[in-house]
Amino acid sequence: MGLVEVMAVSDLHDVSVIIPTRALLERGALLRRAVESVLAQDGVRSVPVVVINGLRRDPALTRELRADRRLRVITLEQADLPAALRVGRDVVDSPFFAELDDDDVLLPGALAARVECLLAWPEYHTVVTNGFRRNSAGDTLHIPDTSVVERDPLRAILQRNWLLPGSWLCRTDAVGPSLFDGMPKFLECTYLALRFATSGRMKFLGRPTVVWSSDTPLSVSDSRDYVLGQVAGLRQLLKLELPPDIRAGYRARVSSACHANADLHFKEGALREAWGWHLRSLRESRGWRYLPFTRHLLRAPGRI
């Protein structure tokens, strides 16, 4: 390697990318693809920090990850996404850090573009980028009109969460592990978006840098637990310091989440639970919207 090449390599910025994963056999190929998309980044020195999350992990895949010297691998006994992100952040020793879900992909030049943005705008601590949403029909740009987010990111969240998993990067010396304190088990992207937007230190970049897969098999967001966990997640969001109009918007969503739980239990035939969640939905802000659901419960066989 010549002197010019050595100097070029030394000028590269280090970026740690936290990849939480359950290391399931069924998602092994997706995880390998995510890791390779990090390692293939040009313009930076990228290090995947793989946090194996929970006891269901596949032993062979776990051994494979631990044997790969290009990775930093941590294991947690209990599956807990906020804890996995916090543990991953604890070991970061690079100037910048990011995150990537194990079924998603960084686009070429993604990390370099984010680092360049923060270097060009030293007053910002975090950069969030656009991305693509991928399903069986193809790829769709997540935010077609980025001017809405750039103008008022906090209020744009109420219309649509602009933060995709794997779309952000932070300065390590400015954003500590406490970022993940209070993060709910679900709605973690909304939580991060609110934290970033309320800090006043976030820059939104219209360039897409990540591909988010919306229909991956065994995805947590498709699970029953995800539906039932929305109420607790929203209550965690409401613990943040939010402007009154943003708080009101999320308070109204609590009634919708309670109704979703009632409807789920109703369809499962668990009428006692359905009634409990229905009554909770009526007590929440704008809960009157779900009063007609009472008729379905009263007409159900074996109603309580």
- Element order: H for helix, E for strand: HEHEHEHEEHEEHHEHEHHHHH
Termini separation (Å)? 78 Å
Number of helical stretches of at least 4 residues: 13
Mean pLDDT: 92
Uncertain spans, ≥5 residues at pLDDT below 50? 1-9
Output the structural class.
alpha/beta
Strand content: 15-25%
Short description, anyone?
This protein has helices at 3-10, 28-39, 59-67, 81-90, 110-120, 147-151, 153-159, 188-199, 224-228, 230-237, 244-268, 271-283, 293-299, and strands at 13-21, 44-53, 72-76, 96-99, 105-106, 126-135, 138-141, 168-171, 202-213. It is α/β, with parallel strands linked by helices.
Features of the shown structure:
single chain; 304 residues; alpha/beta; Spore Coat Polysaccharide Biosynthesis Protein SpsA, Chain A; nine-stranded mixed sheet; 13 helices; 9 strands; 43% helix; disordered N terminus
Tell me about this structure.
This protein has two domains: about 5-220, Spore Coat Polysaccharide Biosynthesis Protein SpsA, Chain A, CATH 3.90.550.10; about 225-300, no CATH class. Helix content is about 45%, strand content about 20%. The protein is of the alpha/beta class. It starts with a helix and ends in a 5-residue tail after the last helix. Strands 1, 2, 3, 4, 5, 6, 7, 8 and 9 form a nine-stranded mixed sheet that branches. Helix 11 runs antiparallel to helix 12 (about 270-285).
